[in-house]
C-alpha cells in the first residue's frame, strides 16, 4: 500500500537469467548445444518463408539457438536497470541462475550471491521492487 492507503500497482519488466546473463553452465545450455543445428535446419525447411530468410537469416544460423554471451546482463545489469527505470517501471522480475550460486552440489559461490545482492540493491536504488521466482526450469550440470 502506498501513503494514501491505495494498493500499489506494479508496472514492470521481466528477464530470465539464462536468456540475458550469458556465460552459463546448466542443463539448458547443454540442450542448446545438442539441438542448435537441428533447430536451424528446421527453420530453413518449414518455419520461415524464403523471402523472409533472405532478408533476416538469423533463424537459420545455429548460433541463434545458443544463449552464449546473451545480452551480457550479468556484467551490464547497472546499465540495464537504469534503462528500465528510465521507462518508468517500478518492478523487475528476474531469475537467479542457480548454476552460478551452486556450481557444484553443496558448494556455494559467495561472489555469485553477492552479485545478486548487488542487483537487488541497484533495483531499489532505482525505485524498483525486485520480484524473484522460487524456481526456474534449469538445473546444475
Question: What's a concise summary of this model?
Answer:
By secondary structure, this protein is mainly alpha-helical. The protein has helices at 17-20, 27-47, 50-55, 73-86, 98-101, 110-125; strands at residues 12-14, 91-93, 129-131.
What does this protein look like?
The protein has helices at residues 17-20, 27-47, 50-55, 73-86, 98-101, 110-125; strands spanning 12-14, 91-93, 129-131. It has 141 residues and is mainly alpha-helical. It has two domains: 1-24 and 69-141, Transcription Regulator spoIIAA (2-Layer Sandwich); 27-66, no CATH class. Helix 4 (73-86) packs parallel to helix 6. The radius of gyration is 18 Å and the shape is globular. The N and C termini lie far apart (42 Å). The model has no long low-confidence stretch (mean pLDDT 84). One of its GO terms (biological process) is carbohydrate metabolic process. This is Beta-glucosidase A, beta-glucosidase.
Q: How far apart are the first and last residues' alpha carbons, in Å?
A: 42 Å
What average pLDDT do the residues reach? 84
Strand order of the largest sheet: 1-2-3
Strand-residue proportion = 5-15%
The CATH top-level class label of the largest domain: Alpha Beta
Q: What is the level-2 CATH architecture name of the largest domain?
A: 2-Layer Sandwich
For the largest beta-sheet, the strand count, sense and barrel status come to:
3 strands, parallel
Give the overall silhouette.
globular
Tally of individual helices: 6
Helix content: 40-55%
**Poorly predicted ranges:** none
Number of beta strands = 3
Helices and strands, in order, run as EHHHHEHHE
Pfam family, one: Glyco_hydro_1
GO biological process, one term: carbohydrate metabolic process
Enzyme class: hydrolase
Protein name: Beta-glucosidase A, beta-glucosidase
Amino acid at each position: 500500500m502506498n501513503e494514501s492507503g491505495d494498493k500499489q500497482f506494479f508496472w514492470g519488466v521481466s528477464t530470465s537469467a539464462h536468456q540475458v546473463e550469458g556465460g552459463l553452465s546448466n542443463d539448458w545450455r547443454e540442450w542448446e548445444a545438442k539441438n542448435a543445428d537441428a533447430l536451424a535446419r528446421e527453420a530453413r525447411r518449414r518455419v520461415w518463408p524464403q523471402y523472409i530468410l533472405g532478408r533476416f537469416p538469423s533463424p537459420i544460423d545455429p548460433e541463434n539457438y545458443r544463449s552464449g554471451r546473451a545480452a551480457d546482463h550479468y556484467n551490464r545489469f547497472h546499465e540495464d536497470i537504469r534503462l528500465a527505470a528510465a521507462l518508468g517501471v517500478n518492478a523487475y522480475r528476474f531469475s537467479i541462475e542457480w548454476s552460478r550460486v551452486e556450481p557444484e552440489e553443496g558448494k556455494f559461490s559467495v561472489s555469485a550471491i553477492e552479485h545478486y545482492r548487488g542487483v537487488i540493491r541497484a533495483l531499489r536504488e532505482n525505485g524498483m521492487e525486485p520480484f524473484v521466482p522460487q524456481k526456474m526450469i534449469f538445473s546444475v550440470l
